[in-house]
Design brief:
Ald_Oxase/Xan_DH_a/b; single chain; alpha+beta; Aldehyde Oxidoreductase, domain 4; XdhA_XDHase; eight-stranded mixed beta sheet; xanthine dehydrogenase activity; iron ion binding; five-stranded mixed beta sheet
């Protein structure tokens, strides 16, 4: 650049820049865990229980040991008895804030069909598979229970000794005086039961990991959302110092919360220790992923509302019963979060709320996109439409009247609603969706095929403070060419986080986006500490450490520029990768020239780096809504989404294109949740019946229309860059909106999902919309 040239500051935040990993992923060059594993690695496979509840009495390994290529067989009688938790929550030195440690590497007490009872290590896949089939297990079978309400009965099978009636935990909320409030004259009582199913994450890449030993330490390379947490859990599971464990996370093919649990990493780490540190790979199948990793909690809700003639709530009651499955995993936190939003979404002075998390003999439930809020929103927002219809108020107007107001402050989280966000989102959605016209058009239909429109809102927050630790750390290194390397503990799992991190770093330091190199691989030996990808925390939480570290690095660069140019530090700035004198805008040198001179100077050498950590003691509300149109084929008992719009206030958009992609992905998941997905279990054996992608009926692009996203950008004042949660919120509100659209089209309230044809058949028949028998009677008039 010629002397006296000037540069103009360009902002990268708010622009839809290309993803930093786009080329590698599109061309197939991105290296995932499977790609990195030594081809000569031993293959490990897990033997899963074929009963739902009982004890392993013995395992005959003699036949398996004779199979050529079998290296080692490890049973539940061989592993160390160190109980450990699996949930990807920040650990605490305070015992009462630690997760439930109820897992062993392999289990003698089997608690669900598919529990892990033995493992085979072999030289190849064929030998490992043959060895599994040759193992002979003798069980002592016990009664099992699959229903959450039956599990709470006094005579139910006891799944864990420490938890009477199988209740992992029960918590409650009491505000005001519910019992006296319901005596107010003129109230309308609305009551309903609502049910959500067990579903699975269905990420493209199954959980895969491999482990080996190096210099007396265990190294695990794994597809995980939580490398630093995984390191701690592996140490706990094996009873070794955590510093003797190293976790490496390459690119990830999706997780959605399933990989926010520590799944098979501890077992894989143990298996390498029994074969002299040789590399051992565990790549479980899709069927195993369904049956033996984590699922979303099925939750049963009971809601009662008392409503005044003016359309306001006088008193409300809430109960939920969460199906935890056989082990604690994330446990009660999911159900508790769902209950926690009840008094906040529609504030009411008189509330009673109780939620129970209950063990059953099914696969353990864990985190899944939305963390209890998709379940809670289906119940609460279905109930909202039921209340509005009961008192004769349009659902949109009822929500506008009752939803959380501007200035609302939650006493626990200290979250503040700084804007009238709900109403802004609803107003924008109403206009963009042309809601009023469609509502009028579909209000007086008859016939076999009808259309309807529905809506719902959602509540969400950002991260886990104050329930758990929130912290982020960042390291930046200035390279000789003026570019920077950025490392954070927060993980890229396919959502585009690395791109957002690069944008924030570029904006803070003052360099072009292309000059930021984000190290996508997390390595607990190298990467600064961070708790990982969950709770829609990444952009919000990492923003604090990125901004702080970027400012520290910039300060060091400006100090160096002062030394080299003799200009006042106060008159210097970094603009688009150049050192600029702010008084006249003159370019003094490029950042690359400064970095090279500093690094190779014979008189004042130095390597310019910055590293910092930031403990975040804030949270932030993230709100929005869904508008949807459905077409219902009444004789065919089918419902199809024909149009859908999500509106979000996720604060300032770092990258609008990535934000829209996040919304589309969440909406797609939610359509499947509403209409087709459910993991079924055999009532006689406890065996999962459809734990494969053929029978599970995962939603595909053929099952939904074009997806539309809109945003209300209210700058979040607690945030480093004005942004807040967006990763999980898009999955929270579509399901009840679809349900409410079916209600508007047919007059039939469906209180259970998925709303598959068999459910529609039953409910349409009860409502008199279908013939009552198969004897040739005429179909009743459609009303």
């Amino acid at each position: 650049m010629a002397e006296k040239d000037t540069v103009r500051k360009e902002h990268v935040i708010g622009k839809s820049v290309k993803r930093v990993d786009a080329f590698e992923k599109v061309t197939g060059r991105a290296k995932y865990t499977e790609d990195l594993c030594d081809r000569n690695a031993y293959v490990a496979k897990v033997l899963h229980s074929t009963i739902a509840h009982g004890y392993v009495k013995s395992i005959d390994t003699s036949g398996a040991e004779k199979i050529p290529g079998v290296v080692k067989i490890v049973t539940c009688f061989d592993v160390p008895e160190y109980y450990f938790p699996t949930a990807g929550h920040p650990w605490s030195t305070e015992e009462e804030h630690q997760d439930v440690a109820d897992r062993l590497l392999l289990e003698r007490h089997v608690r669900y069909y598919g529990d892990d009872v033995a493992a085979v290590i072999a030289e190849n896949e064929v030998a490992a598979s043959q060895a599994l089939r040759a193992l002979k297990v003798e069980y002592e079978e016990l009664p099992f229970v699959l229903d959450v309400h039956k599990a709470m009965e006094d005579d139910a099978p006891q799944i864990h000794e420490k938890y009477p009636n199988n209740v992992l935990k029960h918590t409650s909320i009491r505000n005001g005086d519910y019992e006296n409030a319901i005596k107010e004259p003129g109230l309308t009582k609305v009551e309903g039961w609502y049910q959500t199913p067990t579903v699975q994450h269905c990420h493209i890449e199954n959980p895969v990991c491999y482990a080996y030993m190096e210099q007396g330490r265990i190294v695990v390379v794994t597809s995980t959302q939580i490398p630093h947490i995984c390191r701690r859990v592996v140490g706990q599971a094996l009873g070794v110092p955590w510093g003797k464990v190293r976790i490496i996370k390459p690119y990830i093919g999706g997780g959605f919360g399933n990989k926010q649990d520590v799944l098979y990493e501890p077992l894989c780490a143990y298996l390498t220790t029994v074969v002299g540190g040789r590399t051992v790979k565990m790549d479980i199948s899709r069927e195993e992923t369904f049956a033996s990793t984590r699922v979303r909690h099925a939750i049963h809700f009971h809601i009662i509302s008392y409503v005044r003639p003016d359309g306001t709530y006088a008193a409300r009651k809430f109960e939920s019963f969460s199906d935890q499955g056989g082990y604690a995993s994330h446990g009660h936190s999911i159900a508790a979060k769902g209950m926690g939003c009840f008094p906040q979404l529609y504030p009411c002075p008189n509330i009673e709320a109780d939620t129970y998390t209950v063990f059953t003999n099914k696969a353990a439930s864990g985190a899944m996109r939305g963390y209890g809020i998709p379940q809670a929103m289906f119940a609460m927002e279905s109930h909202t439409d039921d209340v509005a219809r009961a008192i004769g108020v349009p659902p949109y107007e009822f929500r506008m009247k009752n939803v959380m107001p501007k200035g609302f402050k939650d006493g626990f989280s200290k979250n503040v609603n700084y804007y009238d966000t709900f109403r802004e989102c609803m107003e924008k959605g109403r206009k963009e969706f042309d809601y009023d016209r469609r509502l009028e058009k579909y209000s007086h239909q008859t016939g076999d095929v009808r259309r309807g429109v529905g809506m719902s809102v959602f509540w969400y927050n950002t991260g886990v403070w104050p329930i758990s630790l929130e912290t982020s750390a960042c390291r930046m290194v200035l390279n000789q060419d003026g570019s920077i390397q950025v490392q954070v503990g927060e993980t890229e799992i396919g959502q585009g986080a690395d791109t957002a991190f690069a944008q924030m770093a570029a904006e803070t330091v003052g360099i072009p986006f292309e000059m930021v190199h984000v190290v996508s691989t997390q390595d607990t030996d190298v990467t600064p500490f961070g708790t990982g990808a969950y709770a829609s925390r990444q952009t919000y939480m990492a923003g604090f450490s990125i901004r702080q570290t970027g400012e520290l690095l910039k300060e060091k660069i400006i100090e160096t520029a002062h030394e080299l140019t003799r200009q006042m530090k106060e008159n210097l700035d970094i603009v688009n990768g150049y050192i600029v004198r702010t008084t006249d805008g003159e370019v003094l040198m490029s950042l690359g020239e400064l970095a090279t001179e500093k690094l190779y100077s014979l008189t004042n050498n130095g390597h310019l780096t910055a590293e910092s950590s930031y403990q975040i003691k804030n949270n932030a509300y993230s709100f929005g809504c869904t508008f949807v149109e459905v077409e219902v084929d009444i004789p065919g008992c089918r419902a199809e989404v024909t149009d859908i719009l999500n509106v979000h206030d996720c604060g300032r958009l770092i990258n609008p294109a990535l934000a829209e992609a996040q919304v589309h992905g969440g909406m797609s998941m939610a359509i499947g949740y509403a209409l087709s997905e459910k993991l079924l279990y055999d009532e006689k054996t406890g065996r999962p019946l459809n734990n494969n992608l053929l029978d599970y009926k995962l939603s595909t692009f053929m099952d939904h229309p074009d997806l539309h996203a809109a945003f209300v950008e209210n700058y979040e004042p607690t945030s480093a860059y004005g942004t807040k949660a967006l990763g999980e919120p898009p999955a929270c509100s579509p399901a009840p909106a679809i349900r409410n659209a079916i209600l508007q089209a047919t007059g039939v309230a469906l209180n259970e999902i998925p709303m598959r044809p068999h459910l529609l058949f039953d409910e349409f028949q009860k409502a008199g919309l279908l013939r009552s028998d198969h004897g040739g009677n005429e179909v009743k008039d459609y009303v």
